[in-house]
Amino acid sequence: MSRAELVEMTRRTLAHARAGTVPLADAVARVPAAGYVDPDVWALEIERIWRRVPLMFAPSADLEGPGSYRALDIAGVPVLLTRGADHVVRAFVNSCSHRGAIVVEEGSGTARRFACPFHAWTYDQEGALVGILDRDDFGEVDAECLGLTPLACEERSGLIFGMLEPGAQMDLDAALVGYDELLAHLGLGECRVVGRQEVEGPNWKVAFDGYLDFYHLPILHKATFGPDYSNKAVYDAWGPHQRLLQPDHRVLALDGVPEDEWTDEQMTGGVWTIFPHVAIAGFDVGERMFMVSQLLPGPTVGTSVTVQHFLAPTEPDEEAQVAIDERIDFLLGVVRDEDYYTGERIQRALSVGAKDNVLFGRNEAGGQRFHEWVDALVAAPDAAATAKVFAAAEVVHQP
């Protein structure tokens, strides 16, 4: 069924490309400018979105085999991901049960055991406490109750999803609204990591607005890749998650080709976003490479950091890695020096308070939907209300 949905989406976008049309939202939307700069609004977003909504913790390729791990910070929560001997990925709060120290420094690698750098309390891949320094001298404790604090965690379509709130249950089916079936056609689960870099940016919503916006491409990116891209987009949505595709010459290349010959690669172009913080885009570097942009809020309302994970289906040889590295460096410049440079200036200007609202046009349906979901989730007073918001989610294809 997911292939049939992909074909239908491609068919509709191809029709727009032939006709030179684009679907539009019903009206222009106004979003309060204070939402980008008010620390109280930001604090509510951290509490009611980032601590309650399933997040992408990492690509599955980050934990390639048994014994692999990755330690990272997500919205102020230190997280440790491990892949056990049973190949299952688990997530924990990266905090020792003795005195709370961070057990594993940020980064990735392989290890059978994790020893806290403070007093050498040691944990295994499944988070169990397996070693207490000078145990007889320390005193009687129940080691079985002193493992690392687990976090809900599950793999789907080559991505690792989890919850930041200890003890929170994760209903990933309700959260993804079937979107994972479409994401599976990207083939991320068969990819490996070929590069990674981080980019500092503005408020997380200022930054994420850009991933949902093709309107700016020929203008802001006129010196890089913009002239080759249309500023129009067809949006498809699965609850808060959205795919953007341009009705341009790339889609027109399928005109006249029988639909049963359309390949997954031909039908999965554009940008695939995962609410509230991921954008996936493919690039040709001799073979297809994906940039999985994982946007994370910084410690203040006006800051964020984006981790760019680069994935490819095969292990590159030396020549291919050179081409990949060149593209990675190019993309760093585009995001840092064009997108986020502009975003930080937006942040500074909105902080003055001269504008009450920012506008999202009828051609910017993706940004409108994103902010509608942000507002609905921030308005939810508790986890039960959050679940009700997702229970009402629908699949929406622009006509």
Would you give an account of this structure?
- The chain has 399 residues and is an alpha+beta fold.
- It has helices at 2-19, 39-50, 135-138, 172-176, 179-183, 204-211, 217-220, 249-252, 264-267, 318-350, 365-378, 383-391, and strands spanning 29-32, 55-59, 68-74, 77-83, 89-93, 107-110, 113-115, 122-124, 129-131, 150-151, 153-156, 159-162, 192-201, 234-238, 241-245, 271-274, 278-284, 288-297, 304-312, 357-360, 395-397.
- It has two domains: 2-54 and 190-397, Naphthalene 1,2-dioxygenase Alpha Subunit, Chain A, domain 1 (Alpha-Beta Complex); 60-162, Rieske [2Fe-2S] iron-sulphur domain (Rieske Iron-sulfur Protein, 3-layer Sandwich).
- The chain contains twelve helices and 21 strands.
- A hairpin with a 2-residue loop joins strand 14 and strand 15 (241-245).
- The two termini are 19 Å apart.
Percent in helix: 25-40%
Unreliable stretches: none
| DSSP E strands, number | 21
CATH superfamily of the largest domain: Naphthalene 1,2-dioxygenase Alpha Subunit, Chain A, domain 1
